[in-house]
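in:
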């Protein structure tokens, strides 16, 4: 875990309240793994607590980190006000990410809404040595605009929207069921709204497939120093910022 002042290269609206920030880092980039997160300091330290933002992408050749985030309150609104050329202090990478040391496997990645954020780096990692299928879902066309920031060349992928404004009209579970009936996947990875992840985990279990889920939790310190992010699991209390945010779904969902 590193602390670094990074230059903001770009901080733009993707669609609606969703933003994409690109920063130039060094050690914070080289150590990054898919599914981890960073604590970003708000402008001028106005908000005492940093904001936990999941990693969207790490370009290790050019030392660039990408964060896809949504304005949810004062802190993220403050982040969105920062401009290219300004410095932002970031702490990370933090937490336990997805399992990526796999090869020769059939893998299914399911992202929903802002839960698409960690999937860009995850897909790139996994696709090096495995066959990856990606299902991305959201409420509408606005939620899916981030897909233009993915490089899905050679990746079998599907888009679903609740209102049918783009892609398949419906949710990710319908497509997931359809794919899993036809093909045996070795593992499923998911991030998205709680209810969606529960449904993804249950579907994976139905087809006897291991599933990893990335949880969201309120965080204060981000480094296991408080109890702000504790959750109950089958193996006792765990801290999302340290033991997660990625967990084996079997430890969380019945
Ligand atoms: Fe403080 Fe996890 S946010 S322990």
């Amino acid at each position: 875990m590193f602390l670094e002042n990074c230059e903001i290269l770009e901080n733009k609206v993707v669609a609606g309240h969703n933003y994409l920030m690109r920063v130039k880092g060094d050690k914070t980039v080289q150590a990054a793994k898919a599914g981890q997160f960073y604590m970003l300091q708000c402008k001028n330290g106005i908000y005492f607590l940093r904001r936990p933002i999941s990693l969207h992408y790490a370009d290790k050749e050019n030392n660039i980190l990408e964060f896809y985030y949504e304005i949810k309150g004062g802190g993220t609104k403050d982040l969105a006000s920062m401009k290219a050329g300004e410095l932002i202090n970031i702490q990370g990478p933090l937490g336990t990410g997805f399992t990526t040391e796999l090869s020769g496997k059939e893998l299914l990645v399911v992202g929903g809404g802002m839960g698409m954020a960690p999937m860009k780096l995850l897909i790139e990692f996994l696709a090096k040595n495995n066959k990856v299928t990606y299902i991305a879902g959201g409420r509408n066309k606005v939620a899916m605009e981030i897909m233009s920031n993915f490089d899905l060349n050679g990746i079998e992928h599907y888009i679903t929207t609740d209102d049918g404004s783009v892609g398949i009209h419906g949710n990710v579970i319908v497509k997931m069921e359809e794919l899993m009936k036809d093909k045996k996947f070795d593992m499923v990875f998911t991030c998205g709204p709680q209810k969606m992840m529960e449904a993804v985990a249950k579907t994976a279990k139905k087809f006897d497939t291991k599933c990893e889920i990335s949880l969201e939790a309120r965080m204060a310190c981000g480094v296991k120093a408080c109890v702000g992010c504790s959750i109950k699991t089958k193996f006792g209390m765990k801290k999302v910022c340290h033991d997660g945010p990625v967990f084996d779904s079997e430890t969380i969902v019945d």
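note: Residues 194-206 form the longest helix (13 residues).
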